[in-house]
Design brief:
Blueprint: E1 5-6, E2 15-16, H1 18-31, E3 39-43, H2 63-69, E4 77-81, E5 87-91, H3 97-101, H4 108-115, E6 119-122, H5 126-133, E7 138-139, E8 165-166, H6 170-179, H7 183-206, H8 213-228, E9 232-233, E10 238-241, E11 266-271, E12 273-274, E13 282-287, H9 294-313, H10 320-337, H11 345-350, H12 354-357, E14 401-404, E15 407-409, H13 412-419, H14 422-425, H15 430-433, E16 441-443, E17 446-450, E18 455-457, H16 465-478
Parallel strand pairs: 3-7, 5-6, 7-8
Antiparallel strand pairs: 1-2, 3-4, 4-5, 9-12, 10-11, 11-13, 14-17, 15-16, 17-18
Helix pairs in contact: 1-2, 1-6, 7-8, 7-16, 9-10
C-alpha cells in the first residue's frame, strides 16, 4: 500500500504523511521523561466568517496543529498518548446539510487513511475517549509568540474540567522542535523556495515601466499557484517601486501596491509562496527598466556584499547578533566608499548608525510561519537600535532555517532627524545623502538552512547586477508584449 501523502498533481511536490509521524515521535521522545502518563491535546484552526457576514475566509491550518497532524480541514483536535505514541484525530461530525452545500461527508476511516493516524473519532467524543485512557494530565499548548505578541490558543472542549490540565510543559518543547527542521520539512521549504524563485524571475521578465505595482503582485500569485500549487502566499505581498521601497511593510491596506511604476524606478519585490503551510520569503531588488544606474548599482552592490558575507559566515554556534553587526559594518563601509558617509566606521558602529539605513533585523526563522517561532526561547532581546528589531538573538544550530535580508533604505524623515543629532550627523555627508531622497531602498533576501559546516542556499534567483540585467534583457527580447 502506497504511503499517504499530500499532492496537488501535475509537477507539484508529494509530501509524505511520515513527515508528521516523525514530528510526533520527536515530541513523544522529549516528553516521556517529563510527562509520562500524560496525553498531548492540541486544537486545530477553526472555520470562520468575515466580519458579520456568512462569507467564509479561506482556511489555513494553525501551524502547531499542522506540524503534528498535517490536517487540512478546520475544527479538528489531535491527541498523542505519550506512553504509547498513539495518535488520535478528532474531526467534527458534519450535519446532513453539508452534503448539499459543501460536498461528500467522509467517515472516520477516510481521515485515518488520509492522515496516517492510529485512531479517528468525532469531536463530541473527546471527553469520553480520553477518559478511557485515564491520563495523568492533559498537556495543552499555551505560550507567547514573540513575533506577534499573541498567545497560542489553548485547547478547550466540553468536559475538560474533569481532567488535570498542564499548560506549561508543552509549549517550550514543541516550539524548540519546530526551530530545528527535519530533512522532510527542509525538502518542502526548498520546494516553496524553488517555485517562488521562479515566480520572482517571471516578474523580472515581464515588468515594464507604466505598469501598476499590483499587476506584478498578481503575476507572482498566479505563478506560484498555477505552477506550484501554492494557494496561499506567506504574507501580504510587497511590490514596491521608487520611494515606496523605503517602506518596510509596504503593500498593506492603506498602500495596496497601487503606484504606477516609472522608468528609472528601483523596485523591491518581497513575496513568498506557501506550499502545504511551509513558507518561503524572498526579496528581489532591480531597476524597473532592466538597467542599473550608477547610483542604483552602488547601493545594490553594497547590500549584496553584506548578504554574501553573512552567508559565508553562517554556521553552527555563530551568534545571529554578530551576523547582524557584520552586515551593518559592511554596509557602513560601502556607504562611506560611495561618499554618503564619512569618518571612522567603528565609531559609527558605536552610535548604531547602521540602524538609520537598516532599521529592521537581519533576518528571522522560517518554517510553518514566515516569522517562525522560537526566536526568543531562553534568550533576551537586545535594546540597541537595529538590534532590538532582531527576531532572534540565538546562536545558530544545524537544521535551523533562516532568512538573510540586509537592506539599505533612504527614509527621508528619519535621515533628517539624524542630521539634527550631532552624534550621528557628523558621519553623514548631507549634500550626498540628499541625492538619494526618493530613491527608496534595496533589500536582498535569501533563505538558508544551517548545515554541519556552514549553510546551504535555498533561494535561486539572479543576484549580481550582471545576472539581473542579462535576465531582464532576455525577457524583453523573448516577450515584447506587456503582460497585463
Amino acid at each position: 500500500m502506497a504511503e499517504a501523502n499530500f499532492h496537488l498533481g501535475l509537477q507539484t511536490m508529494k509530501v509524505p504523511m511520515s513527515l508528521h509521524a516523525e514530528n510526533r515521535k520527536r515530541l513523544v521522545t522529549e516528553l516521556q521523561s517529563k510527562a509520562a502518563g500524560s496525553i498531548v491535546l492540541i486544537q486545530g484552526g477553526e472555520s470562520e466568517t468575515l466580519h458579520s457576514t456568512d462569507r467564509e475566509r479561506l482556511f489555513r491550518q494553525e501551524s502547531y496543529f499542522h506540524w503534528l497532524f498535517g490536517v487540512k480541514e478546520p475544527d479538528c483536535y489531535g491527541a498523542i498518548d505519550i506512553n504509547t505514541g498513539k495518535s488520535i484525530l478528532f474531526v467534527p461530525k458534519l450535519p446532513e446539510s453539508y452534503l448539499v452545500w459543501m460536498g461528500k461527508i467522509h467517515p472516520c476511516e477516510h481521515f485515518k487513511e488520509l492522515y496516517s493516524v492510529d485512531e479517528v473519532h468525532y469531536t463530541h467524543q473527546i471527553a469520553s475517549k480520553l477518559e478511557k485512557l485515564k491520563p495523568k494530565s492533559l498537556l495543552t499548548l499555551h505560550g507567547l509568540n514573540t513575533d506577534s505578541g499573541n498567545h497560542t490558543r489553548e485547547a478547550a472542549f466540553d468536559g475538560i474540567s474533569e481532567f488535570t490540565v498542564n499548560n506549561e510543559i508543552l509549549f517550550p518543547i514543541i516550539t524548540e522542535l519546530r526551530v530545528i527542521k527535519t530533512a522532510k520539512e527542509i525538502d518542502v521549504i526548498e520546494y516553496a523556495n524553488k517555485i517562488s524563485s521562479e515566480a520572482h524571475k517571471e516578474i523580472m521578465t515581464h515588468i515594464r515601466p507604466g505598469m501598476k505595482e499590483y499587476q506584478l503582485e498578481s503575476l507572482f500569485q498566479h505563478y506560484v499557484y498555477a505552477r506550484g500549487g501554492c494557494r496561499h502566499v506567506c504574507y501580504t505581498c510587497i511590490a514596491a517601486s521608487g520611494d515606496n521601497a523605503s517602506t518596510l511593510h509596504y503593500g498593506h491596506a492603506g498602500a495596496p501596491n497601487d503606484k504606477t511604476i516609472d522608468d528609472g524606478d528601483m523596485c523591491l519585490f518581497d513575496m513568498g509562496g506557501e506550499y502545504y503551510c511551509y513558507t518561503s520569503d524572498i526579496t528581489c531588488s532591480f531597476p524597473a527598466n532592466g538597467v542599473f544606474t550608477e547610483q542604483q548599482k552602488g547601493i545594490y552592490e553594497a547590500v549584496l556584499k553584506s548578504n554574501r558575507a553573512v552567508m559565508e559566515a553562517c554556521k553552527p554556534d555563530v551568534s545571529w547578533v554578530d551576523m547582524h553587526l557584520l552586515a551593518d559594518r559592511i554596509q557602513l563601509e560601502e556607504l562611506k566608499k560611495l561618499g554618503i558617509l564619512q569618518g571612522d566606521v567603528e565609531e559609527m558602529m558605536k552610535v548604531r548608525l547602521g540602524a538609520l539605513f537598516m532599521p529592521h533585523g537581519l533576518g528571522h526563522f522560517l518554517g510553518l510561519d514566515v516569522h517562525d517561532v522560537g526566536g526568543y526561547l531562553g534568550v533576551e532581546r537586545k535594546k540597541e537600535d537595529g538590534l532590538k528589531s532582531l527576531r532572534t538573538t540565538r546562536n545558530l544550530k544545524e537544521n535551523m532555517v533562516l532568512t538573510i535580508e540586509p537592506g539599505i533604505y533612504f527614509i527621508e524623515a528619519i535621515i533628517r532627524q539624524a542630521l539634527n543629532d550631532p552624534t550621528r550627523a557628523c558621519f553623514i555627508v548631507q549634500e550626498a545623502v540628499e541625492q538619494y531622497y526618493g530613491f527608496g531602498g534595496v533589500r536582498i533576501e535569501d533563505d538558508i538552512v544551517i548545515t554541519e559546516t556552514g549553510c546551504r542556499l535555498l533561494t535561486d534567483v539572479p543576484r549580481t547586477v550582471e545576472e539581473i540585467e542579462t535576465h531582464m534583457a532576455a525577457g524583453r527580447n523573448a516577450n515584447e508584449k506587456v503582460l497585463l
